[in-house]
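Notes from the 1:1 (GR / supervisor)

We went over the backlog. Supervisor wanted to see one worked example end to end before approving the batch request, so GR pasted a single chain during the call. The sequence is below; no edits were made to it. Supervisor asked that the structure be written out right there so they could see what the output format looks like.
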Amino acid sequence: MKSKASKPLTIMKKSLLGLNACIFLLATFSFTQHRSLIRSDTEQQESHVSVINVKKIESKSKSKLRMANVDDGINYVSHNESKKINDVKVEHADKSAKESISSSSILGGQQFRESGHTENKIRDNSPKPRNTRFFHLEPQNFIKEFVACIRDPECQVFYHHIQKASGTYIGSRLFPWMNLKFPNPMQSELLEKQNATGRSIRMNITEWCCHEPLMKRLQQNEEKFCRYKFSPWEVNSKQMSNILDICFYQKASNESKTNPSDHRILRQNEVPFTRAAILVAYREPINRTVSLVHQICNEPKESSFRDQVLRGNWNTLNFNKNITAIQEVSEACQRCSYNHNTEGHHFYKDDAEIWNHLVNDTNNMLAGIGDLIQFIDEREDSMNDLRKRSVLPFIMDVKYVSSFFQMLNQQFSQLQLPYGAKNSEKPFRVCKFDITLAPEMRKGLASGESLYQKLTTGFKP
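Structure output shown during the call:
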């Protein structure tokens, strides 16, 4: 039996044991909390590093997707074409809805850029043209398919020569090269002429110019004009559609209704064209309009512009062909400014009305490309029984002309293209037009700028 004196001792021992247990539990909790805090801090640091690495990867990816524009402008100097060209790297319009594809035009320090919001609006409202190739969006495929047409004896190339869009340069290089070097109905005739005269065949600029006079020559000698491997047409888009209809679609339809061996429109052993490519080069609207001003105002002789208007070379400008009206344009060139000067005007309200003819022509030119593409799509749809006969549009911004020829030359190492005619650089004899001082004129080109952006993204104007 235990004594009463031992009870306080027992209670004290139990209390000490309880206190030790509490101290142990408290120490364990503190250690656990410390480890948790360390782990949390480490995870935050790792997460921060991970975010930085992801941003670096995204930055690298975006930098690879940026457009590499190898041409700042049109390079007409032939010896520069011997330089090695880097592949034209572009960002396709359908890469991401969040990525904005825009094109800028800079003139006199003023920059115009399409916003991403506007671009998305264009995406929704402007379906991509079927079977149309854009050089700046798919340069390798563009060249591959264009070369396939060149090598095919049954494929011909129609060139829609838009004025002040590098047309003479492109035509003068491709006309003698394609028509002399590759099999086509006109090849033997051209070679005979070249041998007989001892002079190289070149594109006759007068013969292929312009609008109504050229259409009249086509009607008078359809067989000749439609039989070239490469033919340059300095006309508007509606006339270009008529040319395709006359020279290709109607012939395709007529041949399908006759005996395959009965080619009355063809000469002996002549291979008929069953496919076609149509090449179209276009230009940023502000630069083109200024170039138009310089072209009509700085002719070496004052009579040159008058003669060109009377011949029909500038029919799309819709200038009045009265001699006094033409003189009013020349006087506006002397003033060289977009303003509302009414001095000496009888046929035109003021100088601004004259320059607006050029603005309207540029806007119509860009809209016409969409009209031409639509015509081809509709014509192709109507020829379901002749699917092997097709016209494929090839669309190119003139700032890529040098790249186009360099890449084309790489495909024909033994058949190098001739240098062609360098575009004339007329001195500013009368007028050096500054469009930055004409905000009202630039505003008039707003629709042209919108159409240009649609072409840049590869969508139909």
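Supervisor's comment: Confidence is low (pLDDT under 50) at residues 1-14, 25-127, 258-265.
Batch request approved.
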